[in-house]
C-alpha cells in the first residue's frame, strides 16, 4: 500500500537506557506526547523496538529547527520573533490545559512544519502538573526558572519564565543569563541581573520583563501574554501579515 505521509524516526539505543530512571523517563515521555494533538505541538504517533533500539514515530518537520535558523541569522526581527512566540504561547496554553509542563522550551526544541509553523517537540523533561515529578531539577541551565534554582515548588510558571528567555534570545541572539560557571549563572538568575539592549522595542522589553519575574505568581497568564501589544500590535509588514493569514489562527 502506498504511504500517505512521511514520518520521522527518533532512535534511542537500549544500551543508553539501562538505568531505571532513563527507562521511566522514556515511558513518561511517550505517555505524555502520544495524547497531544495541537497544530503547534509535534505529534507522536507511536513507537516500536528491536533488539538494540527504540524508535519513536513523529510527524516530519520538513523546514528543520528554529535553532539552526537563529544561528544562521544571529537574531530574528521583532516581527518574525513575535510571529514565532505567538505560536509557542498558543501551544503552551494547550499543554497547560492538559496539565502538561514542558520544562524544555528553547530554540533547540522548536521545529518548523511544512508551512513554517512552529512545532514544539522533545517532551523528555515534561511532567504532569499534578505529579510529584514537578520538583525534579530538569531543563537547560540558561532557561531554568529561579524557583528551580532555589529548590522551591515548581509548577507551570517555569514555562512562562522560559518563554521570556526565549523571546530575549530570539531578539538578541544570546540568552540573558550566562556566566563563566553554572554557579555564577545561578546567581545571575536569582539576582535578576537582566539588561535589555537598546535596540529592542519598548513593547518587547515590557513583554520580556513581565515573563522574567522572580515571583512565579506575578508572571502573566498565557492568555494575557497572547494579547500583549508586542504580540498583537499592528507592526507587521504586509508580507508577514499574509504569512500569518496563511498559517491560520495562532
Q: Could you describe the 3D structure shown?
A:
- This protein has 250 residues and is of the alpha+beta class.
- It has ten helices and seven strands.
- It folds into two domains: 7-59, Phosphorylase Kinase, domain 1 (2-Layer Sandwich); 66-242, Transferase(Phosphotransferase), domain 1.
- It has helices at residues 20-33, 66-73, 78-97, 146-149, 157-172, 182-191, 202-211, 222-226, 229-232, 238-247; strands spanning 7-13, 44-49, 53-59, 100-101, 110-112, 118-120, 127-128.
- The strands form three sheets. The chain has a three-stranded antiparallel beta sheet, with no helix packed on it. Strands 4-7 form a two-stranded antiparallel ribbon. Strands 5-6 form a two-stranded antiparallel sheet.
- It is globular, with a radius of gyration of 18 Å.
- The two termini are 35 Å apart.
